Amino acid sequence: MFLPLSGLRVIDITSIIYGPYATQILGDLGADVIKVEPPEGDATRVLGPARNPGMAAVYLGSNRNKRSLVLDLKKPAAKEALWRLVDGADALVHNMRPQKMAAFGFDPDAVMARNPKIVYGGLHGYREDGPYAGRPAYDDVIQGESGFAGTFTARDGAPVLAPTIVADKSAALLASTGLVAALFQKFRTGKGVYVEISMFESMVGYTLVEHQSGATFSPPEGPMGYARALSRQRRPHATSDGFICMLPYTDKQWGRFWEMVGTPERSAEPRFESIAARSRNIDELYAIAGAEVIKRTTAEWLDALRAAEIPCGPVNTLEALRDDPQLRAIGFFRPFQHPSEGALEIPDSAFRFDRQSLPVRHHQPRLGEQSREVLREAGLSEAEIDAAL
Fold it and tell me: How does DSSP classify residue 321?
């Protein structure tokens, strides 16, 4: 299978989740991703269950389709080895603070002077021209600063952190998009490009897609916050024996729902007669719907709602996902035999090309597993490799 980024080499100087998840996507798309790690390795190598030291579950989740090279960038020989890799690379991606990369000597100006055709990806916490530039940034902090946790305040009166590392992963998805676009620009123009993607600004924009609301206009045409998303009644609905999520949205869908529960006249009520009216009365709408849903079982509701073509689904636990009929039918959890970790299951990527899932071309590497291999490919002699390592 020919992959979109086949033949491209990416130097990946990233750690934790934000950077590694972004570069894993590049690897899934075919790039040769060289994961450059310090001697102690990526911090996620010790997070979560593990069969062997340095190969914990969190690390395994965002480092497939990569090769690992250990370099201590405090050593001159290691820096020289990295420069040799820069010479033949299509992209260099890091999520260190900019001043740390500059201290190592690998700031964008220096790298692009050495290789004018390289894409330099700076995955920063904050844009480098603002007063927050250079601050350390982690998911919990960015969820708070970006207003994401504050959406819970607007709804419930107190901030909450989502029980997933949503800032890291969302920013990583945007970063992978920006990096692919920069690579496309490089091949169209023949010149390298410096692309900066920052977690804070990414998550502010992400949160405000719907929540800028009335403040979209100057002067504002109403308050900030998308009413439907902030409704306290917007939640999984309790059935008589469990929970479902459902979303009648169009006039026809709500009409079918009201008929289903024996109150077709609600379609003509001014507060519910249109999508705009329902939006203004969303708390009442969802409260009435919830009071009806609890009268039947989960199975009864899913059958009835699907027959009426009203979007709906069960509320899966993490464990239930493994038995989801859709995921089982498409083979979403892909068996993979890792050379050191044994049998694994790898969730499929988001992409299919020509109806084929992207292959797992390379197992998640042990720390420094391909150090000598990668440096030989870069043209270093055995003596130079010994000095660099």
Answer: G
Query: 3-state SS of the chain: helix, strand, coil percent to 5?
Result: 45, 15, 40
Dihedral-angle region of residue 312 (phi above 0 means left; psi in -120 to 50 means alpha; beta otherwise)? beta
Nearest Cα residue to 13 out of 102, 121, 93: 93
Pairing mode of beta strands 237-238, 243-246: antiparallel
Single out the residue of 316, 346, 311, 319 nearest to residue 332, CA to CA: 346
Q: What is the pLDDT of residue 1?
A: 72
The DSSP bridge partners found for residue 364 are none
Identify the burial level of 171 via C-beta atoms within 10 angstroms of its C-beta, where 0-12 means exposed, 13-18 middle and 19 or more buried: buried
Give the chain's domains with CATH numbers: 9-206+331-388 (3.40.50.10540), 237-314 (3.30.1540.10)
CA distance linking residue 116 with residue 136, whole number of Å: 29
Mean pLDDT for back-to-back runs of 10 residues, the chain (389 residues): 93 97 98 97 96 97 98 96 97 96 96 98 96 95 97 95 97 98 97 97 97 96 94 94 96 96 96 94 95 96 96 95 95 96 95 93 97 96 95
Distance of CA 326 to the CA centre of its chain: 22
**Alpha carbon 15 to chain centroid, angstroms:** 14
- Bond into 131 cis (ω within 30): no
Beta-strand relationship, 32-37 and 9-13: parallel
**Residue 161, class by beta-carbon neighbours within 10 Å (0-12 exposed, 13-18 middle, 19+ buried)?**
middle
Q: How far apart are CA 278 and CA 280, in angstroms?
A: 5
Please give the model's pTM, rounded to 2 decimal places: 0.93
pLDDT at 155 (0 to 100): 94
